[in-house]
Design goal:
By secondary structure, this protein is mainly β. The protein folds into three domains: about 170 residues; about 70 residues; about 100 residues, Immunoglobulin-like (Sandwich). It is about 0% helix and about 45% strand. Strands 2, 3, 4, 6, 7, 8, 9, 11 and 12 form a nine-stranded mixed sheet that branches. A six-stranded mixed sheet has the order 16-15-18-19-25-26, with no helix packed on it. A four-stranded mixed sheet has the order 5-1-10-13, with no helix packed on it. It is globular. The chain starts with about 35 loop residues before the first strand and ends with a strand.
Length: about 400
């Protein structure tokens, strides 16, 4: 089920024969016996209520010391052709990549990466910008640390004579933060650095009737590992590549506030083959659902702009899934969610790709757990029952 690339610089790396394994797994591309090569690309997870999220990447550099300052010696820049490069992150879903470039590096372990974005200016006012659904393009306020770059902690081993291949997973949903009713948006990038594989470590499938609010995620023990949205232009196709570990205990979670939540359990992940959950001829069909609104806030004397609110749901016996997660508004400290309140529909993965058999988990209907996470503070959690209508939850710090 290989999907065609959108352009010569973009590819579905999870299934592309041109991609090579992480350095520890072999590969080629080094220039001599003492150097290897690092190659980078960018991808994105789903966004929340945006049609476009643009960032302009100026440069990327790496260092072998996690504590190195921006002016210390020992930095290596990645050769990025055509930089600065303006990228719409929402074009980069379901494994689609924007290739950044590659560079030869001395063999060794690199533990710090810095990503530099071009700031908005009079000549380029929308270098970094967002287009909320139904609204006009708006400039993104970028962090003051842009001059020194966004610091990412990494563990990248460069082996002599080999190619280390990595993807920067830019989570647009958590990176764009609203600022009350001001109409302004702040960019606080949330980025993961993931190895790029061929042949396996990926799950894909089809959702027949997704909406703009549908999300597909692969979760392990209730923690989201990768997420995306079905592509209506490709028969609802979704792809979840760059998975960190193999095994058979993953849950495929499909959420949509108007069409209910579905969970496929015991989805296997293999290092040698892509796991197909279903085929285009037997797509997952979502059912209409009732829904309610949940508003949560995290506040002390003022809003806590770096607080993250997440919504969870218990299913079956001793199992939990995450439905949504986002940063609170930077001014009022709140986050709003529209949640499906009908029972979660459960099915088990079929290795023969037989039609999935769905059963309702009636105990899950309208029952949620809401959590607030603030760096440096204990996790807070409150149960929420939406059977009687919308609700609000307040967390104090």
């Amino acid at each position: 089920m290989t999907q065609l690339a959108k352009s010569s610089t973009r590819s579905l790396a999870a299934v592309s024969a041109a991609t090579v394994l992480l350095a520890a797994c072999g590969g080629g591309g080094g220039t001599d016996a003492s150097t290897g090569t690092l190659r980078l690309a960018v991808t994105d997870a789903p966004a929340c209520g945006y049609d476009h999220v643009y960032v302009t990447i100026d440069s990327v550099k790496v260092h072998q010391s996690a504590s190195a300052g921006e002016n210390d010696p020992g930095w290596y820049r990645i050769a990025l052709p055509g930089m600065p490069k303006r990228i719409d992150l929402l074009d980069l879903r379901n494994g689609l990549l924007e290739e950044l470039g590659q560079t030869a590096l001395p063999a060794g372990r690199y533990t710090q990466m810095r990503l530099l974005l071009t700031p908005n200016s009079a000549s380029a006012p929308y270098a970094n910008a967002v287009t909320p659904t139904g609204s006009a393009q708006t400039a993104l306020t970028t962090p003051s640390a842009q001059q020194s770059g966004l610091k990412l902690n990494v563990n990248i081993d460069i082996e002599a004579g080999k190619l280390a291949d990595f993807v920067l997973d830019f989570d647009a949903c958590k990176s764009v933060v609203t600022a009350g009713s001001s109409g302004k948006y702040n960019l606080k990038p949330v980025i993961s650095v993931l190895p790029r594989f061929i042949g396996g470590m990926a799950v894909d499938g089809y959702v027949a009737n997704s909406s703009p609010y549908s999300s597909v995620s692969l979760q392990l023990n209730g923690v989201v590992v990768r997420s995306t949205v079905p592509d209506p232009t490709r028969q609802g196709y979704f792809s979840l590549p760059y998975l960190p570990s193999s095994g058979s205990n993953y849950d495929l979670v499909i959420t949509d506030p108007g069409r209910g939540t579905r969970v496929v359990s015991a989805v296997p992940v293999s290092a040698t083959a892509i796991t197909h959950v279903n085929t285009a001829s037997q797509p997952i069909l979502l059912s209409n659902s009732n829904s309610q609104t949940l508003v949560a806030s995290a506040a002390a004397l003022n809003a806590i702009p770096d607080a993250t609110i997440s919504v969870h749901q218990s299913i079956g016996v001793g199992k939990e899934i995450e439905l949504a997660s986002r940063r609170v508004d930077s001014l009022d400290g709140s986050a709003a969610f529209t949640l499906a309140t009908d029972p979660v529909q459960l099915a088990s993965y079929s290795p023969t790709l037989a039609p999935l058999s769905w059963l309702p988990d009636n105990a899950s209907a309208a029952q949620f757990s809401v959590r607030s996470q603030v760096i440096g503070s204990p996790l807070q959690s409150q149960p929420v029952d939406l059977r009687l209508g919308s609700a609000r939850v307040d967390f104090s710090y």
